[in-house]
Design goal:
Four Helix Bundle (Hemerythrin (Met), subunit A), globular, Tetracycline Repressor, domain 2, about 0% strand, mainly alpha
């Protein structure tokens, strides 16, 4: 009986630490990393390198997310969406979370340096520094442009993936970075429409909490059109072919349509549909990059 209770507690504690890393967000970041590596290699990189970069990227992103939760624990306790996070419930103490996060960041840096190169390690840690220091500690609570600028942190994994293969950066990964940078506001604002009252309750000026849904829809449309253009410009920059070009054209056209439709009949329900599609869009776009490359360079 005692052993069963101890095992249950251990599982609960492990689950709390995993929750600190926000695994669903990490999953989306890694989805963009692997296809980027394939495009950079113009073929399939070694299995060892792919696994190593995924591990290092997971550690870096997980540490950043844990530090974000430490800083935001005051507002997380007020917002309904975040009320069950480990630091709010007391499942993990702030000191333990900080030690855990720093340990992940150190492990990420050393692992990526050892298995890839120094540039890859520096880029991964720079994303954490930007996310925690610039977005979480400064922008999030001070400006409605918070997620616009802060979204740069979520775009760094493509630079990490590219650098791990080539040990340098070029125009193609910069455009990939710009694609995710422009994708982030439509994606996050669409979700924030649902939780605008939560953000308003803690004075976080997320755009849907401080502007009308019509204004949010207009901004989403602007960013989505720019995103579509960037996705098409990537083809010549990254030497991508017909598979990617057709996919980018169709996915982007439908994304623009969904954004336009939200502006035509703005509602939280349509905003959530747009949010759901945005996840599929990014996933399919990057999968198309990898597939296109492997078809032409098996």
């Amino acid at each position: 009986m005692a052993a069963t209770i101890a095992l249950t507690r251990a599982r609960g504690k492990l689950g709390a630490y995993v929750a600190l890393t926000k695994p669903r967000i990490i999953e989306l970041l890694l989805i963009t990393t692997l296809p980027t590596m394939v495009v950079a290699r113009q073929g399939l990189p070694s299995l060892w390198l792919m696994v190593a970069v995924l591990i290092g990227g997971t550690f870096a992103a997980g540490g950043a997310n844990a530090l974000n939760m430490v800083y935001d624990r005051d507002i997380d306790s007020v917002m309904k969406r975040t009320a069950k996070r480990p630091l709010v419930t007391g499942a993990v103490t702030p000191v333990a979370a900080i030690v855990f996060a720093i340990g992940l960041e150190v492990a990420a840096f050393l692992e990526l340096w050892a298995t890839a190169n120094l540039l890859t390690a520096i880029l991964a840690i720079s994303a954490t520094a930007f996310y925690v220091g610039i977005y979480t500690a400064w922008l999030k609570r001070s400006t409605k442009q918070n997620i616009v600028i802060g979204g740069a942190a979520g775009a760094v994994p493509v630079l990490v993936g590219w650098a791990s293969v080539t040990d340098h950066l070029s125009l193609a990964p910069v455009i990939m970075f710009a694609i995710i940078f422009m994708w982030t506001p439509p994606h996050f604002w669409a979700l924030a429409v649902r939780y605008k009252d939560d953000y308003a309750s803690v004075d976080v000026p997320m755009l849907p909490a401080v502007a009308s849904l019509e204004r949010v829809a207009r901004e989403i449309l602007v960013y989505t059109v720019i995103l579509w253009v960037l996705s098409l410009l990537l083809a010549p920059a990254a030497h991508l072919g017909l598979v990617y070009e057709v996919t980018a054209l169709l996915l982007g056209a439908y994304f623009v349509y969904r954004a336009w439709d939200l502006g035509r009949d703005a509602s939280p329900k349509k905003a959530m549909r747009l949010f759901s599609y945005s996840i599929s869009y990014l996933t399919l776009l990057f999968v198309a990059m990898g597939v296109d490359t492997l078809v032409r360079h098996p």
